[in-house]
Amino acid sequence: MEETLIKLLTEYGYPILFVWSMMEGELGLVMAGLLTHTGHMNLFLAIFVAGVGGFVGDQIWFYVGRYNKKYTLNYFKSHRRKVALAHLLLKKYGWPIIFIQRYLYGLRTIIPMAIGTTRYDKRKFAFINLISAFIWAAITIVLTYFLGEIILHAIKYVKAHWYFALPFAAVILGTFYYYVNRASRPKQKLPRVENNENNI
Q1: pLDDT digits (tens, 9 = 90+) for 74-87
Q2: Who contacts 21 (Cβ-Cβ below 8 Å, separation ≥6)?
Q3: How far is the C-alpha of 151 from the C-alpha of 95, rounded, in Å?
Q4: In terms of Cα–Cα distance, which of 161, 140, 173 is closest to 37?
Q5: Burial (0-12, 13-18, 19+ Cβ within 10 Å), 129
Q6: Model-wide pTM > 0.70
Q7: Cβ atoms within 10 Å of 145's Cβ, excluding its own
């Protein structure tokens, strides 16, 4: 399985990286950084592909929120906690949330959709999103490139001592769940999504 994944990433690394970056793709960027470290991918091309993928992915969700209200409302109904948190973050940070949301696991699709449901200027969103996508790609891939040897040794250690990694992963997931659950409890009722037409 592992050899097959490595072979696929080596042969079709850039298309896989593009698709992965369209989704919540930090793991894909880390893999790309490791492949640039080992010489299987070009550093600058990997950053470009990941940046374009991240940009396109968020643009798609933004336009889904703007022009497909029915799907958006149905999607929001099944992610109420995350939507509540997204609204709180939008209210607190405004447009910088376009940068921040790339580092918020589980909110990468919800925040662009939530922005899309407002009257936020689509050209301004696209411009900020483009810059954000390339900064996100560059920081993650370059850091992984320079820390490649340390990360490879860490992966090797985790594979050999996987039983230590399970409690660590449980703590991270538990902390994230607690944060979303606590932060998404508004003190007052949130406005309905379809009536939220103010600028950020």
Answers
A1: 888 777 777 777 77
A2: 28, 29, 49, 50, 51, 52, 53, 54, 57, 137
A3: 33
A4: 140
A5: buried
A6: yes
A7: 20
